[in-house]
Each structure stands twice: as structure tokens, then as C-alpha cells.
Amino acid sequence: MERWVSWAGLDIECDPEYGYYIRMKYRLWAFINDTEIPIAPGATYVSLTADNSTCVDDQGIIVPCGTPGSMGEYDYYMSLWDTPVIIENFVVSKIIWADAEGKFNTF
Question: What predicted TM-score, i.e. pTM, was given to this entire model?
Fold first, then answer.
């Protein structure tokens, strides 16, 4: 079965009322012989969320919390706020990482 993933949205919350997280939303498609296979409602989208419950090192690689030099994933990305970023490269790199981690294996 062939799968396709496309970027569907980006949500950054940085307010105590709503929380502190960065969420990227992706849409999934499945195909067999070039025919789209319907995916159950709710399973067609996958969200990846960066918050401070996940820790990363100074390169943004996930590590166990408490590792010397680690910080919350949300804090890491917000520390890059003034850094020029090519959004397409960021989105594609997250798709590749999430696919390798099995994050899109919802069907």
C-alpha cells in the first residue's frame, strides 16, 4: 500500500490560558493501484506536538528528560524564534522523522 503525507497546518500556542506547544498537522492518504483508499474519519490527520513533556538536546534530538543540557522541546523551538528557517525544509524533515518513528502508521 502506498501512502502520501501532506502538511495541513501549524499551530503555536504561547499563552498560559491555552498552553505552550507547537503542533504540526498532517493529512494522510493511502493508495492501492493509484486508487485512494478511504481512511476512517479522525484517522486521516496526524498531529505532531512539541511541548515541554518531551526533552531534546542542543540539536533538537529527543533525549530522556533530566539528561545534562536537555531542555523541553517547546522551549528549544521557541529559542530558535529569531533564527531564519525555511518552513518547507522543517516540515519535510519532520515528515521523514515521523515516518521513521512510525507516527503515520494509523492504518
Answer: 0.76
